[in-house]
Each structure stands twice: as C-alpha cells, then as structure tokens.
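The material for today's practical consists of a large collection of protein records. An example says more than a description, so a record of this kind follows:
***
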Amino acid sequence: MVDSSDTTFMASLQQLVVNLLADHAYSICELAQECAQQLHEPMCEIMTPLADSLCDMVDRGRVHYDRQQHLVMLG
C-alpha cells in the first residue's frame, strides 16, 4: 500500500526531474546526484523512487533514455 507521503514525494521527484531535464540531458547517476542534493536526501534513498519515476515517465512519453549516449532527456 502506498501512503500519501510516498505519492507526494514521487510527484515532487517527477517535477524536479522535468525541471532539471529542461536545462540539459543527464546520465542516470548525475540525475540521481542532483535530485539527492536538491531534495536534501541521501543518494541511496533517491535511487529506487527515481528508478520507479523514470520508468513511469518513459512509459508515459515524458522522458526518453538514449541507450547509445546513456542519457535521460525530455520526451
């Protein structure tokens, strides 16, 4: 069961990802580091929700992962 704080955190994380990717593409590791820094969370706490968020965002066409360059970018 997902509680409302998890849902709020995921929404905040997805919005942060969109805001960051508006500037330029990131590797997954760089994106995780930047999200952790801006959310004042340890990177180990960011990795799973970030992976879940990115999968959801890729499925909905909001972001794209370039496998050749290993970069995440807006859809």
